[in-house]
Amino acid sequence: MSRREPLFHWPSWPQLGYAIGLGLLQTAWFAAIYGGANWFTAQREFRVRVHFEFERDMPLVPELVIAYLSLNPLLWLAPFILRTRRELEAFSISLACATAIAGVGFLLFPAEAIFPPARSSDLGGWQAFFNLVEHLALQHNYLPSLHVAFATICALTYSQRASGPARLMLGLWWSAIVVSTLLIHQHYIMDVVTGLGLGWAMVRLVYRRLQRQAGDMSEQIILPNPSSDPEPPV
User: Which of 30, 58, 75, 94 could crosslink 207 through cysteines, CB 3.0-4.6 Å?
Assistant: First the structure.
C-alpha cells in the first residue's frame, strides 16, 4: 500500500509568489462584489426577511469570534496544501465564482440584522475582535453566507489530500466556523444552508471539473502511426 503524502508542504518561492498573486486578485474581486452589493443595498429600502422568528433567541457566544476570524488563516493555507499551480488556479476560480453568485444573492435578498448591537459588558475582552468583524462583514450581505461557502470550499478541497486525522481536524475547524456565524449573530440559518450548498456546488462543478480537465490534458500522448513502416536503418 502506497504511503499517503503529508497534508502540508513547503512550496517553492515561485509557487508561493504565484499563490499570493492569485490571492490578491481574489481579494480585489471579493472587495468589489461584496462591498458593491452592500453599497447598492444601502441605497434602497427594499428588504427581504431571511430569518426565522426563533432565531431572535439565539444565544451570543463571544468566544466563537476567534473561530469566525479563523477563516482567513484557513484560506491562507492553500499554497501549503495544494501542490500544483493548476490546483491553486482551480481553488481561486472556485472562490471567485462563489463570490459572484453570492453577490447576486445579496442583491436579490437584501436583509437587515435582527440582533441589537452587543453591549460591551456582554463582550468583555472580545470587544476588539467584534469591532473587526463588524468592519469586515458590513451590514446587508447575508444570503448566502460567503463565510460558510469559503470554509466549505477549503474543507472539501484540502480534505482530498488529507488522511483520516487531518480530515477530522479540517472537519472540526469547518464546523467551528459554521457554528460561529450563528452564535456571534453574523448570519441566519438560511444563510448558512445556502452557503453550504454554494460551497459544495463550487467544489463539485468548478474545482473538480477543472482538475479533471487538467488530468485529461496531461494524459494526452502522441502515439506513432502503426500503419507507417519505420525507415530502414542506413
Answer: 94
Question: How many structural domains comprise the chain?
Answer: 1
Tell me the C-alpha distance between 206 and 156, whole Å.
12
Mean pLDDT of the chain: 89
At position 70, the amino acid (one-letter code) is S
Task: Give the N- to C-terminal CA distance of the chain in Å, as an integer.
Answer: 48
Q: What is the pTM of this model?
A: 0.88
**Prior bond of 232 cis (ω within 30°):** no
DSSP letters spanning 43-60? T-------S-GGGGGPPP
Q: Are 92 and 23 in contact (CB under 8 A)?
A: yes
Distance CA 68, CA 187 (A): 11
Pseudo-torsion of CA 164, 170, 176, 179, nearest 10°? -90
Residue 217 has pLDDT above 90, yes or no: no
pLDDT in tens, 148-207: 999 999 999 999 988 889 999 999 999 999 999 999 999 999 999 999 999 999 999 999
Domain boundaries, position 200? 30-215
Distances (CA, A) of 207 to 87, 126, 202: 8, 36, 6
**Looking at the domain assignment, is residue 234 inside a domain?**
no
Helix (H, G, I), strand (E, B) or coil at 127: helix
Please give the Cα distance from 43 to 161 (Å, whole number): 45
Closest alpha carbon to 196 in 181, 208, 218, 209: 181
Q: CA separation (Å) from 181 to 25, 64, 73, 212?
A: 25, 9, 16, 33
